[in-house]
Amino acid sequence: MKIEKWVIAVLLFLNLKGMMFSVATKDGTLTHSLRGTPEVFGAPDSLSFTYYLKTCPELEGIIHRKVNAWIQKDFTLAAALIRLHFHDCAVRGCDASILLNHATSERSAEASKTLRGFQVIDDIKAEIEKNCPKIVSCADVLTAVARDATVAIGGPFWEVPFGRKDGRISIAKEADKIVPIGRENITSLINFFDARGLNMLDLVVLSGSHTIGRSTCYSINHRLFNFNGTGKPDPSINIKYLKYLKRKCKMGNDYLVDLDATTPKIFDANYYTNIEKNMGLLTTDQQLYSDARTAPLVAVLASQPGVFASQFAASMVKLGNVQVLTGKAQGEIRINCSTVNP
Fold first, then answer.
1. Which of 52, 184, 205, 221 has its CA 20 to 30 A from that of 111?
2. Is 87 a catalytic residue?
3. How far apart are the C-alpha atoms of 1 and 11, rounded to whole Å?
């Protein structure tokens, strides 16, 4: 079967299942059906693209300048900031609960121990407070920062709707119980995404954020040396890639390995072509291609880089809208992102 027919077949399947490919635009997110009629979806009614237009018109400019400055100093912060946003939205929705810093907060969880970028958020928030005191939520800042981090390393742009409030609750045990760690099976991941209003397409597309970033050898050693307790490596790993990873990970559990083995500093669709070659780093990466439910999506995204870019933007909009707090009684506007207001 030619790849063009694959694309048509998968798009038809997604359309029938209500999982349409989407493109982010300045007016929102357009969902394109095969019948040619775009439908708008995305931001909840309580969020708005013009939320801070009058109260903090400098907001997006501040975030853009600060994010670019930080990433110019340390390129690896781009992936770290996108990951920080995902971890936030994974637990209690996108409420900046991951930023709260106390002994039992999500930030102190085992699942959060390799998170980075908190200082970037603090720096941006401090500048915003100078210009627009007590106006902009940390949840909105983190959501926009993830977008600008993506753009800074060559990824797509999308409009971020604003109006989120910051949560007051952050529990480490919830993060350790809920946040995926890279060893789950595909059914577990599908269920995790579904519980947050995200579908199988979003799962495969947002996994593509692994086109940049790194992981510790600790996260993959079970695949290299003792897969499923066999004392042998995961047989699905490309042999040359396996030798490369074993050589790297002899340096210790904390050694960092690129999630994208071929173009780790470029935001592109090579993550998917790597998976097709059995060069997915994490268990969850490779299973996207070995599972019959997600493999066709991997094939489409590997062969159609433009589809990946546009759909990544649309799926990130959906991620940023997960279980948001908007009412005054639901949350607050934190002055300091690491602590609740007095």
1. 205
2. yes
3. 15
